[in-house]
Amino acid sequence: MKSTRAQLSLFIIIGILLLFTATILIFFLEKERTEIQDVTLPEVQAVKEFVTRCLEEELQETVRLVALQGGYYGIPDDSVEISLQGLSSTVYFPYYLTEIPNMPTKENVEEAIERGLGDSISTCLDFTIFKNLEIDLQRNPTFKVSLSNDEVSVLATVPLLIREPGSGAKEVSLRKFTAQTKAHLGTLLTAASKITQQQEALENKQCLTCLSALGNLYDVNIETMEVEKEDRTILLYLLKPQGEDIVYNFAHAFPIQEELIPTLLTIENLQAEVGKEFRYDLNIQGDDLAFSDDSDLFEISTEGVIEFLPLPEDKGSHIITVHVEDQKGEFDEETFILEVVDNEPEKFTATDLS
User: Fold this and answer.
1) pLDDT tens for residues 246-294?
2) What is the pLDDT of residues 89-127, one digit of tens each?
3) CA–CA distance, 192 with 195 (Å, rounded to integer)
4) Cα angle at 280 between 278 and 284, to 5 degrees?
5) Percent of residues in the chain assigned helix, strand, coil, to nearest 5
6) Residue ranges of domains in the chain, CATH in brackets
7) How many CB atoms lie within 10 A of CB 210?
8) Which of 251, 257, 318, 336 is deepest in the core (most CB within 10 A)?
9) What is the DSSP code string of 77-120?
């Protein structure tokens, strides 16, 4: 009997504790709801829009800066300092191809943008413009950046405590903010990687005409500049996507060579189709090159590009020799077969069927 009474007393005590806990929880939930209502929605919304606008502006500027320095924020460890026309300060081109390759990964670039935002966000978070609110930044903002082919987005944690002036004023907390900017930074990183892989396969030989095909593939304008420093030649790359104002820079370094003999890499047998534009980029190394061929089908551009529109009368196999020569008379040749075909189905007449 005593055991039953003890158990009953224990259940009563537990019930009282649960009721007390629930009462406290309801009180604080109602208090929080009241606090949010006491600071008017337009004022809170104005703060949210202000922080979001600040985040968008700093994201755009940080993306431009990181692109200028080949995916790095701050001075890359292995880089060359270059002064570019139109910029008030020098730019550091990281070496993607040298004795110690220094090419960033997608995650490296995202982290670089996060560090840049951490340094710059305070320049525009001036809450003194809100005269009727007290706004406290409770700790330093943090950022999580996501990089895609054509967009950079960020999820920012900016812990704000907002209250109206006066004793006993209610409070509102804001924490999460997002921003995006249209920028083909992911595409530029991929294009730079492909350029570097292609160049690495050629070792110390430079293949400038190979860039044309990659530029068309990624819809990127590729400019190059060559400088000599100490015992090596530095090839600077400036990549700019169509319709955007960001520039992606990086560099390759090569030992200085006394003489670069023209070299035309192997051309596999090719096929063209009547009525469809044909294009082929020659893979060559050398400086100040001139091109020629023994075919009546096309002319080779000064950039080493074969481009023409095959006509019905061009059908058949053509044995073609391409000749490349530099200013010193050094040359190379390559012979290949170009097959022009017509994939249109044959048309039969009544006579054919009789």
Assistant:
1) 999 999 988 776 667 888 888 999 999 999 999 999 988 887 889 999 9
2) 788 999 998 767 788 999 999 999 999 999 999 999 999
3) 5
4) 165
5) 35, 35, 35
6) 263-341 (2.60.40.10)
7) 22
8) 251
9) SSEEEE--TT-SS-EEEEEEESSS--PPPHHHHHHHHHHHHHHH
